[in-house]
Design brief:
Length: 343
């Protein structure tokens, strides 16, 4: 199960190592994600069997079922799938860059910036013209830029990014609380609903930009995985291996931020997915660093399964993932304390 196989594409093409355990873990996770995806098409006021849902997916069977699947349920499960992939992969990137299990986008301030921008758009009204998703996207990008610039001192390090990010997160969280205090009842209801993180009422307009971002940024991150592995060993070792440290860190951060920004814009800040997914993947594969593909698939499974668990009770997916992630965060902190770790 822990064996490995080397491969090369052509005589001078890229080469790599295929490890058996991560491969089979990824296969099992992909199957579970597919099952949750199929089940997501069956739940609702108009129940469908898996067989009927699959027929409707290929435009066969009852026309009503086809309309329900394509107009209501397929956009929802597609957003859930893409959001989970994006959050899981971005969490693996940030945790590897910072060499810290707590360095996820929702801890170091990227998601907090998106939250503040979205709430500001609702309270001050400019969200009506730009759209809550667009303002959230701009807020996440602005927050990430501020973190990087404030952490810069003849370069950046993962440790400084985490410390600055926690401070920026606290600042944006305070601003969000202030904006909620200023809002009227209806504005506050809209803002709180968005801040929870939800797949309710997702439409094709939410799928398009997120799908493009995932299709572009996921391959970019995977192509830079060697840089990421080198950075995990420390800056001096990475330079010795030929990694352009600052350029690589900036490029990986931009890719990770892009994934978080588009995912948050599509579904809101679905809590703790980017924190727990890489750590679950790391333990499943028994690797020293969060595995990228397995982390992404774990994120997709967490979001889709959380949505399925919350639907019978009318709970947004962010409530379910928060209920899972908060105890996990406390466990991580207590474990770090017992081991005497600075994490």
């Amino acid at each position: 199960m822990d064996g490995q196989t080397t491969f090369r594409v052509g005589d001078r093409g890229p080469s790599g190592v295929l490890r058996a355990r991560p491969f089979w873990v990824a296969v099992v996770l992909a199957v579970l994600v597919f099952l949750c995806f199929c089940l997501g098409l069956t739940f609702g006021d108009y129940p469908l069997t898996v067989f009927d849902a699959m027929r409707a997916l290929f435009w066969y069977g009852d026309p009503t079922a086809v309309d329900i699947v394509y107009d209501l349920r397929l956009p929802r499960v597609l957003v859930g799938l893409l959001v989970g992939l994006a959050f899981g992969l971005s969490g693996a990137v940030f945790q590897t860059l910072a060499r810290n299990a707590l360095a996820s986008p929702d801890v170091i301030g990227v998601a907090a910036g998106a939250n503040t921008a979205a709430v500001a758009g609702i309270v001050f009204g400019f969200g009506a013209s730009l759209g809550t998703s667009t303002t959230a996207l701009l807020g996440a990008l602005a927050s990430a830029t501020a973190i990087y610039l404030l952490a810069w001192r003849r370069g950046t390090t993962g440790y400084r990014i985490v410390l600055v990010g926690i401070g920026v997160s606290a600042l944006f969280t305070s601003l969000t609380s202030y904006l909620l205090q200023r809002a009227d009842v209806f504005q506050a209801q809209r803002a709180v609903l968005w801040l929870t993180g939800s797949l309710n009422l997702r439409e094709w307009k939410h799928v398009g930009p997120l799908a493009v971002a995932v299709l572009v940024l996921v391959p970019v991150v995977l192509l830079m995985s060697r840089w990421l592995s080198g950075l995990m060993l420390g800056d001096d070792t990475a330079r010795g291996l030929g990694v352009p440290v600052q350029k690589a860190r900036l490029a990986l951060m931009l890719a990770g931020v892009g994934l978080v920004a588009f995912a948050t814009a599509a579904a809101g800040p679905v809590a703790f997915v980017s924190l727990v997914s890489p750590q679950i993947g790391l333990r499943l594969t028994r690797r020293p660093t969060p595995p990228l593909v397995v982390s992404a698939l774990t994120g997709a499974l967490v979001v889709l399964a959380g949505d399925l668990l919350g639907r019978p009770f009318g709970l947004p997916v962010g409530v379910v993932t928060g209920a899972i992630g908060a105890p996990y965060l406390l466990w991580l902190l207590s474990r770090a304390k017992r081991l005497g770790s600075g994490a």
